[in-house]
Amino acid sequence: MLQPTLGHVGCSTLAEVALTLCAMLSPLTFIHAADIHLDSPLHGLSRKDEAFSQLVRGATRTAFARVVDLAIEEGAAFVVIAGDLYDGAWKDQSTGQFAVAQLARLTRSGIRAVISFGNHDAESRVTRHLTPPEGVYMLANARCETVLFDDLGVAIHGRSYKQAATTENIAATYCPPIKGLLNVAMLHTALDGHEGHANYAPCSLAELQAAGHDYWALGHVHDHVVRSTHPHVVFAGNTQGRHVRETGPKGVVVVRAVDGAITNVEHRATDEIRWANLRVDASGAGDTIEALTAIQGELRPIVAAAERRPVAARVSVVVNAALARRLHADPSFFETEVRGHAAGVSDTLCIERVKVAARAEAGTDGLPAELRDLLNQAMTDPDCRRAIEAAIAPLIGKLPMEIGDAETTPLIAFARTGNGEAIAGAARSLIEARLGGATD
């Protein structure tokens, strides 16, 4: 620390000391991004509403452009991207060209970037990369690398994936922190496990906390989560939600540090479209109109919270058993009615799917006793399960591969696994919903 003696220095020395002190005390800003998934499709939209799908096409590109805009507006010194810049192998060169163009916008503004690659853009999946602009550093996968920004007093440590399914603890191979610098470590990991994400590059929170780095910039988990503040261990989340399980604001983290210490961590939205999973209790509705009115009322605050972004919503509505039977008799008609009421809320609101369930009656699952016994037998009898598997296999083989995701067509998805018990379970859930026993 400088300790000048004022009686023995000249004006020029005082000015230099003042500038040095200002530099030390002024905040250093950087952006932590991850899971951009450039050109990833937004699942579940194109089949439902082509006009809305056209509106949001290119949402992942818009989100990345907003990351760059934010870095420039905030005067960031650098940007770190902790894996999955790309969604996989490029369909054409335009994906890489767009990425390079956005990175060039950063470097023209004097902002550097450090990129590590994760499971979606591992070397085994994306074998060619366009030459990045000067000032952009892409980390290798053979070992941990350290990028030094001496003028900023920053050391950035990280390692890319070679294989998509990286199951070793690569955090254990990381370079140690450099004393006297702000140490940022980039890691694409599920940490100690996160629902819905493969357990890649597993490690423990305690292990990262003990490593000595000031900030762990994590990727892979698509939710923004701060796992620790001493030191900071942070998932940025993805920059754009891709389906209905990725709801709420998506974006990046703006990080500020003073004199080598993290002082502020703030999540900022960059998404172009917002997803919502809406559950409506309309069990008191006496008819279809009352149920639709209840749904419309619940949609309004979701649209308001999206701050003028387009919204794609899944609607799960619970009604009484009698109304559920009427709605299940013609589900496409009711879904069309829901879409019409959604249009009355906003012309940038898309209904991704409508699910109708009956209010469960106390003491019953809503199924006739004979049918309940038959389904229970199908789930427990090995011969019955094998018969189900044998009967379904030839039919499944004739279906196009794009049909059958676990969210929209669970029966087909389970049938492809050849798991008779899972097929019977999915069938039971569907039958319960149709007959009024399910609550979801």
Automatic annotation (TrEMBL):
Keywords: Exonuclease, Hydrolase, Nuclease. Transmembrane segments: none annotated. Residues 29-223 form the Calcineurin-like phosphoesterase domain. It comes from the Bacteria. CDD domains: MPP_Mre11_N. InterPro entries: Calcineurin-like_PHP, DNA_Repair-Maintenance_Comp, Metallo-depent_PP-like, Mre11_N. GO terms for molecular function: exonuclease activity. The keyword DNA damage does not apply. The keyword Nucleotide-binding does not apply. This is DNA repair exonuclease SbcCD nuclease subunit. It comes from Aureimonas phyllosphaerae. The lineage of its organism: Bacteria, Pseudomonadati, Pseudomonadota, Alphaproteobacteria, Hyphomicrobiales.
